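Review form for a predicted model. The reviewer records the input and the model, then writes brief findings.
Reviewer: anonymous (R2)
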Amino acid sequence: MLKKIFSRLKKKSEESKISEIKEEIVDVSEELAIDKEDVSEIEVEKKETNITEIVDNSEKIINSAPEAEAEAEAEAEAEAEAEAEAEAEAEAEAEIEFDENDKLYIIDAKIIRAKKIKAIDVYTNEEQVFDTHKQCSKALKVPIEYIAENLRHGHTDYLGEAIKYLSKELKLSELNNDYINNNKSPLEIYNELNNKIFTLNISESKRDDILSNNKIDPIKMHYKFESLDEEYEKYYRKYKYIIKRGGKKKIELLNSKGEVIEVFKSLDECSKYLNKSKSQITNMLKYKDNKVGRYEIRYSLRNI
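Model under review:
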């Protein structure tokens, strides 16, 4: 696409040059006609020589224009062909069904993106759609952690409050730190903390205080959720094998018109150019948070 634009610009530039040369020939010819009566033969000859040189140059430009245009068009066609092949390959790969690991990865990515979501009342089946998880949490007055718990694990008991309380009282903060993204499920963490009430070396009065506090109980919720973030699913289908593989990854920088203006051969090269850390660029691409000011970055489907 970019090469075609350059080709058109080049062609217009050459046409503009030819037009300017023709105007110059006319101007010099008129000047020569006016001055012929008043100037010496030497000056006339000089002007005639200038006209000859201008005409010769214009002929060279005119003759080379078709060749330059043909070359630019050939390059543009080759680039378009390569892009089409890469797109076709990506589409063919996208036809492969997602396995369980893919599904879990997509759910986690959607939770991190926290985009469009549907809330369903478990008693009335009433449905509400929200643009973001934050908007949903505020409108329904449900903890945003519960939305993540329900999307990933499906249960309608909110365990986050109990986990926070128990881990604080038992001084086991490591079980509370980012419990949503822990390798263990919230239910596993909750059960482990409950067992610790009886196995840790704490006073009987402390144990009684914990057991009598209603904060140790899960909170019953009456909403379940369904992510409507189809944008990410399409994105993952297209770039799955680039996202999940290691090694160098080619990155493209696009302007506001969607035209490629820069190509980076690695994440390091891209991060240095954009003055961002490598992990920032990795996460931006992984979760389709592609905007960089007025520009956008994306994985390149071409081979390095």
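Findings: The chain has three domains: 2-94, 105-227, 246-299.
Further findings: The domain at 246-299 is CATH 1.10.10.10 (Arc Repressor Mutant, subunit A).
Recommendation: see findings above.
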